[in-house]
């Protein structure tokens, strides 16, 4: 006997968004912990067996649309965990899609008895809460996306009061394998090409928080392992990698590509208003510009109380893995990077 759990007895985790960056990372982490990972996708037959996101970690694909409640409820049948990692593509149509999708996930959790895992963002906060954000910091967003995120969390908290357990982990800007729709991939470098320069979207001297997706996934599964000790609506912040002055991430990219003279350039914010009428994603980026004008840090003391440490991969290792996944570096290893030492409270 090898001690492994037979597949038909493994707990089931439904991952919504398994082909994306955070969904893929969570799918891999759950699979490594012995979960039977089920994923729902509108074109499940076309993604089965592909290497994008967490596809290789998915044991079962089902066809369905996150906007269709019956599909989500059916996909969650027998699941003890639902990871909600779906978002409108390209930052668009949040007002029409975000809240209906979370309502469908809540309905599925109510039907199956599953616990919801939800990645959070800092969109909920306005400048009055900066620079150090805690789980109970006032949420006074100044953007449409921020108000939608506040409403989303309110619905999750209401669901928790009605018997649906929720674990929400909030973090800074994402980077990592599969995170193509991120500031790292779309704002700092150009995916699919050797790195010739790095754009700097933030103000010099302002600290900025980054979170490596495999670290966030590991945080979710460690919290899940301690679920019996958590409140019904459990919120946590990750400190992540703190860029102390707006140049730290760019310097790490320099080290990853092996060029200490790689040029840094200011992000062309002046172009964004001009292009917004014809390039919808630029209009969305402009709305979130305030997050690059201010110093923003996340207080992870609550997370440290529960886990004792925050999972964190060494920055240079994480940046190199991200650049390889984006086609900016030659692939020199096939496995995911190993976890490095935990981070202490900052």
Automatic annotation (TrEMBL):
<keyword id="KW-1133">Transmembrane helix</keyword>
<protein>
    <recommendedName>
        <fullName>NAD-dependent epimerase/dehydratase domain-containing protein</fullName>
    </recommendedName>
</protein>
<dbReference type="Pfam" id="PF01370">
    <property type="entry name" value="Epimerase"/>
</dbReference>
<keyword id="KW-0812">Transmembrane</keyword>
<dbReference type="InterPro" id="IPR001509">
    <property type="entry name" value="Epimerase_deHydtase"/>
</dbReference>
<dbReference type="GO" id="GO:0004029">
    <property type="term" value="F:aldehyde dehydrogenase (NAD+) activity"/>
</dbReference>
<feature type="transmembrane region" description="Helical">
    <location>
        <begin position="12"/>
        <end position="30"/>
    </location>
</feature>
<dbReference type="InterPro" id="IPR051783">
    <property type="entry name" value="NAD(P)-dependent_oxidoreduct"/>
</dbReference>
<keyword id="KW-0472">Membrane</keyword>
<dbReference type="InterPro" id="IPR036291">
    <property type="entry name" value="NAD(P)-bd_dom_sf"/>
</dbReference>
<feature type="domain" description="NAD-dependent epimerase/dehydratase">
    <location>
        <begin position="13"/>
        <end position="229"/>
    </location>
</feature>
<dbReference type="GO" id="GO:0005737">
    <property type="term" value="C:cytoplasm"/>
</dbReference>
